[in-house]
Amino acid sequence: MPSKPILSFVIPCYNEQAVLPHTLQELSAALRGLIADGVISEKSYLFFVDDGSQDDTWALIEKAHIDNPNHMRGLKLSRNVGHQNALLAGLLGQIGKADAVISLDADLQDNIAVTKQMIDCFSNSGADIVFGVRSERTTDTAFKRKTAHWYYRFLHWLGVEIVFDHGDFRLISDRALRALAQFGEVHVFLRGLVMQLGFKTEVVYFERKPRVYGETKYSLSKMLAFASDGITSFSIKPLRVVTTLGLILFALSIFVFIWVLGAWIAGETIQGWTSLMIIFLMVSSFQTLALGVIGEYVGKTYFEAKSRPRYIVDKELSP
Ligand code: UDP
Ligand code: MG
């Protein structure tokens, strides 16, 4: 283990011109501080990934790079591929260049002060992955807090291994990154994928801060797609649930069959519209639901089978 590791801070940015000048300042100061304290090597750097922004994000990154080419590096993707893929592009780009990477959001909601603790877990405790876990969620809306909580519990029930209240603020060692590079899936859900890597892990707690400038880049539809990815990438339990429900309905139908036959023998064949409607609605809605669940997996397999590139690099800024 190198005594002073080369650290790379990977920051995905999508239309972040409002917050980026502030972020550049804060992060450079933090980087300088960590180098001055002898926690990380002088060769450490910040790595910004522009996820196909339409605003001045890339211009700001380029300017920072010109002013300080060693410590400020960047990657411009050819188009917007979403937070997870942009982050992946940044992470995989550091293989062989740094001893460890720390990923954080451009809006500085992840507390940079705890990065020192993360590096300590890596350098002194030999952890390959260090998870940043929110100690509270007061900066989130009550809606986000509740839905996130239910979602985590649902994932847990599905058997998806995940660290509670951990987003994408984490340290990953170079060798863990090399392992991550072997996962070729197109739909990336990093917080689940890193759990598949194994290695020694540690947890560091932090208070998530509110976004200072700009707005969230996660629309409700992006969030729903992300949540669905988390489930379908790691569990086929929903398919099994559908099968189980199907079996229960089948068992029920046997009773109904006997009842209907009994009624027919007794000569009560005219009445029964209500029961017929109830059975019809139950079965047809279950079938539609089952098709939807199966469809999710089929659709996903369709995209995975194509195995299209997860991102395309336009430009890279390196010293
Ligand atoms: N982001 C990205 N591509 C996207 C959406 C978001 O690179 O398509 C970045 C964004 O710039 C930020 C991080 O992902 O650095 C997290 O996004 P945001 O802060 O908007 O999400 P929230 O904190 O509201 O969940
Ligand atoms: Mg944010």
Structure notes:
This protein has 319 residues and is an alpha/beta fold. The protein contains ten helices and eight strands. It has helices spanning 20-36, 57-67, 83-92, 115-123, 142-157, 174-180, 190-196, 220-232, 237-265, 273-306; strands at 7-13, 45-50, 72-77, 100-103, 129-134, 166-173, 201-206, 313-317. Strand 1 (7-13), helix 1 and strand 2 form a beta-alpha-beta unit. Helix 9 (237-265) packs antiparallel against helix 10 (273-306). The relative contact order is 0.14. The chain binds uridine-5'-diphosphate and magnesium ion. Residues 12-14, 16, 51, 80, 82-83, 86, 105-107, 109, 216-218 line the site of uridine-5'-diphosphate.
